[in-house]
Amino acid sequence: MTDNLMTTDLLTCLIHHRPAEEPRIEITHNIIAVLGEVVYLNCRYLGESEIQSSRWIRQINSKVKSKGLAGFLNGRAFKRHDFSEPASLTNLTVQLRVSSVDIEGQYICEFESEEGVFSENAFVTVVARPDVQILVNVGIINGTQYQSVSCSAVGGRPSPQISWSVNGLAASDYPFTVSVSNTAHSNGTFTQSSVLRFPTHLQDEDSVTCNVQHPTLPNPKLTTVRVETYVRPNVTITAEMVQKGGNDFWVVSCISSGGRPDTDISLALSTDEELQRENSTDPDTQRRSVFLPAAEYEGRNFTCVFDHPKFTHIESRAITLPSFYLSRVQLLGSRPRINTEGFQPTEMLELQEGQRGIVVGLEVVGNVPRYNVTCKKDDGPLPAGLELVGRSLTVQGPAEHQHSGLYECVFSHHHLKAMLQFNITVQPRVFQPVPPTVRVDLWTKGGLRVIECSAADAVPAANVSWLLPKGVSGESWFNFTSHNGSHSVTGVFLLPACSPWELTAVCVINHPAFEEPENRSITLPPCARPNINMNSSTEWKDGEKFTKVDCSADSVAPAAAISWHVGQSDNSIIGDLSEPEVQADGSVTARSSVHFLTSLYAGQNLTCMVKHPSSEASQKRTIHVPVPKAPLLRVSVARQQDSHLWLAVCDCRGDAVGTNLAWVLPENAKGQTSLHSEYEGRVLKARLTYQFPLALHEGQDLTCVYRFKHGITEKRSVHVPRYYISAVRVLNHTTPLRSRYGGEPVMHRLALQENHHNQKILLRVIGNVPQYDLNCQRSDGSSVYMEGLAMVLESELTEWDGDLYTCRASFYHHMAAVKIQVEVMCKDKQFVLVVISCVSSALAILFIFVVPLWVCCARNSKTKYKEQESLSALTTLMQEPGSPEVKKPVMMEKDSKEYDQLISYAIVIDVKSTV
């Protein structure tokens, strides 16, 4: 047994170590598998040996191997654990689910054949993709804020590698510190944690990036996290004056804006008094303010001290409050004049009587933020029409003598005061006539034309009058107004808003400034005539036709009057008048309509008469009411493709057809009628149909009648054709078999050749039908294939395939049929029949001479028995030459009697056909 094992090992060694032989197994030797995913073990046999079994096994150690994990045994596939079934006996490619790191190791792919075992090794290395987690913590160490960013690559195999970057640069130097720790897990994976620590005030970037490198990652995984940063603030000191409780206060503010974190602010004062302080509520701005009485802190110095982590040293801002002064007040635009004694002299201001828009500006020399002003005239109050507005004295209205006098204005701010005295004189004006401003306007209001002529701002007042055409009168009035010594006169004249003639009105103005009277004329054009529109429409209601006519007139105000008249006489009808509509352009639209039974005024003219002040006579618009017309009828008859019924159609086009449409049918009519109608614009189209079987009205006339309600009747008739099918003819050479009573043949005998296929029997239908259905059946009722008018016997026929065929042509109830006895004969039999036919022909000639002789003898015989015996002998003689191969075809019971008649004379007809 040991020898056998050695022989086997030697053979195996020789098989696997052939030096120049192409590899028989295609395999992936080194495979990387990711934990939690699937991996493919690829192994295929490329040799020519016939493989009996194949499998995957695992090399546990140098001596121990596992059982088959997946493969083929006895022609059947098998798999174990996390393996999938292999593709085929020679393709052991399988899918392996990587559930743990324990699957790492060496696997052997084996193929077994009669020649031996072929194997190759593959090593599976298990790696695990790490999960990256990052966290930011903030802490205070010795009064300084530090931030710690922790980045962990959890569950990697092999151990991951972590590095840090800030703004694309490695974070490995000051102020950054990095601490790294590694942890090995029981499942064979590793976790590396790295902590990046730095003081917040030394790091200006708002994000840091954790870089994780691992074989399972095609590129380093970058995870960026936001971190807190400090921002250097902008600091300043301000001072502004406010009023609170009627007193002035300085508000000194220390302001820090845009910084992070908050700035430590303090305000240094040169006093130990407790002052009112105020802090800002703006989240982006820090403000610390103090309120100081303005009178007590003039000229004082104040300092704000700011401390922030981004400052290398404490910063300060200082401000000095100003000292106020009020030196003098002067008229705006005047030069300061101070005499040698040190007081300000009185200024002079000269105005003209009636002067308007006077503003006396007061200019203050000093730096006070605000002041109080009081002014008086001649030690009394300011005169009426003179007001103090801000720093100015404003004269309301024209300057008058009451505004002359000595004015004194005092400006004060706390203990500071300044005074100004000035004298105002008003010079009287020289009177001169002022010509008026003349204007003429025209507009329409309330159905009237308003002409307004005004002579405004004249000194003295002007005289206004009207000059009108002869025969024109209207209402007029004048208005007088005065303002600041000038006078205005307005004359108003009212005329009708619309006139058929052109009118000219002249306004005459007299004034001392004019050498001659001024004339202003305005021409009133005649009114435009109304734009008249007339339209009509019809409708049917309860079988009656009604007409509606609308008439509208677009005109200037007032609205036109509309009336209606019928015919040549003065017969008037009452219309429906709508409320006038006022359009956007001021025009007015009047509308009226009439609604009447059309037959009342058929054939007459309907007139719309429009009366308007723009024309002396009424305007007319006329419409003709037409006489009703009979509808247009059109009838037709046709057969239907998908029905056994015929269809008669009556199309009617006109006004309100439909219910007045009917078919005049015979008493025995049993068809179905239906009516369909639809509108096409104002025209109604109706279609009345009648379905009937052809046999019911064949050869008759069908009449469609429209009965108009007022006696008009329209008729249209259509003729239903009469059809027939007289016979079905066989065009092939046949032998007609007639009944013993003579007449048309009841059957045709036809001989076909044996062992021929696709033999055709040609037919023809005699009749006047436009088309027909032609079909043929065997005696057993089965159908025969048809090509047009030809019956085709597709299969090869034998002597025993003869049969009786019936061919029928039909068109509705018309029908004709022919019966064909088909016999199949070989060529030899046909030759014998020809010989027999010749003998039969000779016997037939003999029969021609025997029959007259027999007739003469029969007349002498008086015995019925002898006569019947002679006829029997004659019948026997006539049947003797018949063809013994003629077989009685299988017949239906209804055809049996007809066939019995054919038997007696079959031979005789055959003999005649061969002569």
TrEMBL record:
Domain Ig-like: 23-125, 130-223, 233-320, 530-624
Localization (cell): Membrane
Membrane-spanning segments: 831-856
Membrane topology: Single-pass membrane protein
GO annotation terms (biological process): heterophilic cell-cell adhesion via plasma membrane cell adhesion molecules; homophilic cell adhesion via plasma membrane adhesion molecules
InterPro entries referenced in this protein's UniProt entry, alphabetically: CD80_C2-set (IPR013162), Ig-like_dom (IPR007110), Ig-like_dom_sf (IPR036179), Ig-like_fold (IPR013783), Ig_C1-set (IPR003597), Ig_sub (IPR003599), Nectin/Nectin-like (IPR051427)
Keyword Transmembrane: yes
Transcription regulation is among the record's keywords: no
Keywords: Cell adhesion, Disulfide bond, Glycoprotein, Membrane, Repeat, Signal, Transmembrane, Transmembrane helix
Matches recorded under SMART domains: IG, IGc1
Major localization class: membrane
A GO CC annotation given for this chain: adherens junction
Family, per entry: Belongs to the nectin family.
Protein known as: Ig-like domain-containing protein
